[in-house]
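Researcher: Before we compare anything, I want clean individual predictions. No alignment, no superposition, just each chain on its own. First chain goes here; please echo the sequence and then give the structure tokens.
Model: Echoing the first chain and its structure:
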Amino acid sequence: MLTTIRATLLFVSILVSLTAAVGAENESLSAAAESAPRSAGNRARAEARHPVATLEFFGIRADMTVVEITPGGGWYTEILAPFLRDTGKLYAANYDPESENEYFRGNANRLLEKFKADPAIYGQVIATVFVPPAKLEAAPPGSADLVLTFRNLHNWMEQGNEEAAFAAMNTVLKSGGTLGIVQHRQDTIVEQDPKAESGYVREDYVIALAEAAGFELVAKSEINANPKDTGDHPKGVWTLPPNFDLGDVDRDKYLAIGESDRMTLKFVKKP
């Protein structure tokens, strides 16, 4: 009887400790999101992008090695860098700063300048280049606990490089590591455009790509869903905020819809 009581007390003690650890992790992530030196525009978009809930869904911890694929202007990097700075590691695998393409070159160099301008936040970030199919070494093979990619798949599809991108993300992950994907979501009644020119991709298409690359789907979330978004717009996803590619044409209509409907998918790398 005494042994059973001791075992029960030990179990309760462990459960309380784990709950406290998760609570502290969540508070740390929320603090990173709140204290990040963000522009007013970036901060306002948190309502549509749900960064804390999204990262929690992907299972991020402060001691992880994380690879952010194509961070662009660094919207998520602003949260990831301070969160991982002390006990984790962050690779920012962006465009090539020496690219012949002016957009890619400018975007990459602006992010690097952002890192240099605030070493207290970004001094530990490791900047790498991810340009499939030519430059795929986002991080050392088998080194990452978590790979994150936000709204990038349509760009790879436009260039026909989606399979190379998924294979490369699989390579950098440890066995059992996590791949987190957020992507503009196309209705399944619409045939998938192989070039994804609208920016939207069918969820089943993404899952098939990931599975073919050696991943297993373990969870879905509707954190970033927007049922108001039909996915049928004159300028594709860029019709909606924050881009408003139609300018003032029907701007109130698209503002009322809000940002795109997005899938949020969690995969693990198969052994």
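Researcher: Okay. Second chain, same rules.
Model: Second chain and its structure:
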Amino acid sequence: MSLAASIAKTVVSATVVALLGCGASAAPTSPFAGMSGVWSGRGTITLADGGREAIKCRATYAVRSDGNALQQTLRCASDSYKFELSSNVVAANGRLSGTWSEATRGVNGEVQGTTSGGRFQVVVSAGTFKADLVLTTRGNSQAVAIRSEGSEFKGANITLSRV
């Protein structure tokens, strides 16, 4: 797997987790309520060799009327690459599931996780790639921490805010 594809998968994962966390203050039966709109943010990606690179992202979210399903489009760029990602995530009984894809590289995968008390724990996968994500939300700001082993990507920290 190329470094760009590995990073794209990780950023997709971060975005999906950020999307899952936006509803932390909403009722447990509708975790995505109040998320619709545009969000943007910045972060840092850490590579297995210890190198770091800044990334800038912009996301658009559409939430189903009952607040239990989300469609997201994400555009991210750094000095060396850019990508466009889409995801669809559904919440049911404290469980989160869905799919994501990266259009320019033809990569896609699954999202699985749980939520409890405003904390979101998610595993994102695509083939042999797997990343663990934890998200916390405070007001209109979200902090996403991602960790991955066995690839060129080691982790990321990204903050998104409502525009």
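Researcher: What stands out in the second chain?
Model: The chain has one domain: 3-162. Additionally, Helices lie at 3-21.
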